[in-house]
Design a protein that fits this description.
CATH class: Alpha Beta
Radius of gyration: 19 Å
Order of helices and strands: HHHHH
CATH superfamily: Ribonuclease H-like superfamily/Ribonuclease H
Strand content: under 5%
Helix content: 55-70%
Number of helices: 5
Structural class: mainly alpha
Shape: extended
């Protein structure tokens, strides 16, 4: 519906302008990017995204509205996109893991 799109565009513009006015950073992710981040498949359905979100967050109520699971998916996508870099650049094996995490080894 064109009227809905125009109203949504105006609301989005006002929200972005208000955030920038208060020096709040704005992040935008395409639906494909969110789906890829959550399910591993950019063409996933809303049902698949909802199922992954409920599984990931251990949510028992599988009857959440898609608006709610979409919002959670966007938040998790943002988290995944903005994780700080670790000091180790690549996987070096179990020996390195054991050496750097002695408290996690059962004896």
């Amino acid at each position: 519906n064109i009227q809905s799109m125009l109203k949504l565009g105006r609301a989005q513009g006002v929200a972005i302008a208000a955030a920038l006015y208060r020096d709040i950073p704005v992040f935008e992710y395409s639906p494909r990017k969110v789906k890829q981040s959550i399910t591993g498949r950019g063409a996933a359905s809303k049902e698949q995204v909802a199922a992954f979100i409920c599984s990931l967050l251990n949510i028992k109520d599988l009857d959440l509205p898609f608006d709610a699971t979409d919002a959670l998916a966007i938040a998790i996508c943002h988290l995944f996109q903005n994780k700080p870099n670790t000091s180790q650049s690549s996987y070096t094996g179990w020996a390195a893991f054991a050496a750097s995490n002695p408290d996690r080894i059962k004896k």
